[in-house]
């Protein structure tokens, strides 16, 4: 199951006092589950940019605490710096990383802005995707006139903040105003060129960046810029929307680069920008030799790139994510200048809880030995999910082998799609291996709850019912997911590489075992539910799946036997 992760990059109007910066970041990290990725103070700007990630709930709480602490430590009446600013927390964007949409981040931003205004008495503007007015999508519009303009903007219906609009007072004088919003993830990337010419690099940058280049008289580089009726240069747009780019020379590497910010990776994914820069470079006799990612990226950026290049090769994309990422790294030359370690560049990997022991991270022997130990978990539920994962793995293997076979070149995409679906089912079932054990542990935790008073007993009973329901629903989910493997296996038996037909047959046996084994857990856990109507409903659903799985197993195995 995909993690729900968002990033927050608040800018605080303090870049010179390490103690104040430390107290603000400590307020942020006081929220459990928050991973602080970067703290970048600037003395000249008197501003610190903080980057942290976590679940939507954790991030919004951490942002609130950071804004609160900044308002207590920073007095805007004495603030001076080179960077535009309007408040102690000047800007606070929420950015979707995984499992969360931009629209969801926009709604979270509005709620956070309202809470900041209500509970902290700090006036707040909403910008970018969270803006209530089209013109306020632009941060510069919200921050017009900066801190010094607040006396005239506060209380003004047109210029005032979206939340906390009131006449200018001492509280506003001290904290200033904050701008909170949502935007897409920004990727900073440099494309390495086989030239030392900054001029050539700039030309390529102007070819692709959204802003483009000035139109010149006669279409010549040396011609005068053509201007409109207002005296502004007329621009020839570049080919990539949502990008900013420039060419420069890097002494450290002895090469020129096209340096680019991709401000909307949904509009222009990294691999699309890479291909376009390669195309424009080639037209100018220059070659892109590699790519340098600055900072971190969401995992989807590399997964999408890897799949893109695999499809260009007419190769199956139903591979483990590590292999897909490896294809992305090699295809874009991410390791040309220095080794590229996804564990240090991918946000999801950076925030993994490495201290938490996972069953699926054990070796095959380790999982068997852990199951064989005297501990009651993992047990039949986890092993049922694992058998389902192996069933999906076998179906995926046959699909991948078929897609890569010369005889199936005209159908590679069909089997690639099947392999991708199998990979997704395998991932879901592997997640359920640990989820089933976690569900059992939740029941064990209830036994540790106090039961001295009537209130204790009532709370304990309520927690036990909830934990038992969850422990029943998890194996039912395993049944439902393992059942979805049968169509993949049937297709492989009917249409796939016939040399691997017995592998699909073994997968069918494993899928049926997963369904039947999980159903045993549904029934025994449902027996502990006090809500008998709910228990019977879950058991009835499981019985229906189990019956259909038995039918499909018999049909598919009969087909296998007839062909070997």
List the main descriptive attributes of the protein structure presented here.
single chain, alpha+beta, four-stranded antiparallel beta sheet, seven-stranded mixed beta sheet, 564 residues, flat
Task: Summarize the structure in words.
The chain is flat, with a radius of gyration of 29 Å. Strands 1, 2, 3, 4, 5, 6 and 7 form a 7-stranded mixed beta sheet that branches. The mean pLDDT is 94. The two termini are 37 Å apart. The chain has 564 residues and is α+β, with helices and mostly antiparallel strands. Helix 7 (198-208) packs across helix 8 (270-283) and helix 9 crosses helix 10 (321-332). 51% of the residues lie in helices and 13% in strands. The protein has helices at 18-29, 56-73, 102-120, 139-142, 150-153, 170-175, 198-208, 270-283, 299-312, 321-332, 342-345, 347-350, 364-372, 380-403, 412-447, 454-483, 485-495, 501-526, 532-563, and strands at residues 5-8, 11-12, 35-42, 47-54, 89-98, 124-128, 178-182, 187-193, 213-214, 235-236, 243-250, 255-262, 288-294. It has 19 helices and 13 strands. Strand 11 and strand 12 (255-262) form a beta hairpin.
Total count of strands: 13
Largest sheet composition: 7 strands, mixed
Which word captures the global form?
Answer: flat
Radius of gyration: 29 Å
- Percent strand: 5-15%
Oligomerization state of this entry? single chain
How far apart are the termini? 37 Å
Count of helices?
Answer: 19
Unreliable stretches (pLDDT < 50, length at least 5) are none
Q: Give the rounded overall mean pLDDT.
A: 94
Helix and strand arrangement:
Layout lengths: L4 E4 L2 E2 L5 H12 L5 E8 L4 E8 L1 H18 L15 E10 L3 H19 L3 E5 L10 H4 L7 H4 L16 H6 L2 E5 L4 E7 L4 H11 L4 E2 L20 E2 L6 E8 L4 E8 L7 H14 L4 E7 L4 H14 L8 H12 L9 H4 L1 H4 L13 H9 L7 H24 L8 H36 L6 H30 L1 H11 L5 H26 L5 H32 L1
Parallel strand pairs: 5-7, 6-7
Antiparallel strand pairs: 1-4, 1-5, 2-4, 2-5, 3-4, 8-12, 8-13, 9-10, 11-12
Helix pairs in contact: 1-2, 2-3, 7-8, 9-10, 14-15, 14-16, 14-17, 14-18, 15-16, 16-18, 16-19, 17-18, 17-19, 18-19
